[in-house]
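Sample entry (209 residues):
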Amino acid sequence: MSGGQRQRIALARALAIEPRILLLDEPFGALDAKVRKELRQWLRSLHSKINVTSIFVTHDQEEALEVANRVVVMDKGRIEQIGTPGEVYDNPATAFVHGFIGESIVLPVDVGDGCVRLGGKPLNIATGGAPRGVSKLFIRRHDMQVGPAGSGALQGAVRHVRTFGPIQRAEVALSGEETVIEIDAPRDRELKAGDVIGLQPRRYRIFAA
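Predicted structure, serialized as tokens:
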């Protein structure tokens, strides 16, 4: 009997007593990625058919966003944010939530005089109402738009590229900074090691450090 079948049987037994609340604590933790995905789909389908509230505890962000109707993000026992998966992912309330939910580029910046600076150099982005002072700039890897050298808020040189599925993941060394970031770019423009490119954040958040 496979791990996925055992999990289905265990959940069926738990539901047989018709509980009002079902607690699932890392239920798929010991399973491989393919089986976990199949079980997440099965669990969503099951919840659409039965009237039971489930509390699903997991450290897997993708799992939480895919399964839940509402997500509670906690750090050291403190609630950081409660919301729908879309709200938590697109509008994180704190730096912790942004860094924990989804993969982010994080850069140390200074905000002041209506300007955002990285390493003392102004970036071509708005402050977004961020308070004055030392801050952190958060950008989702797929929200970094790639352009020719000289364009965009950031400049960098491509060090390495990995291609999988519809995206290419590139390591980029930022010009003038001892910082290497990873971006996810569509494959409509091939990137290769040695390319000098401009980068412009399409979406980003700034939080006080």
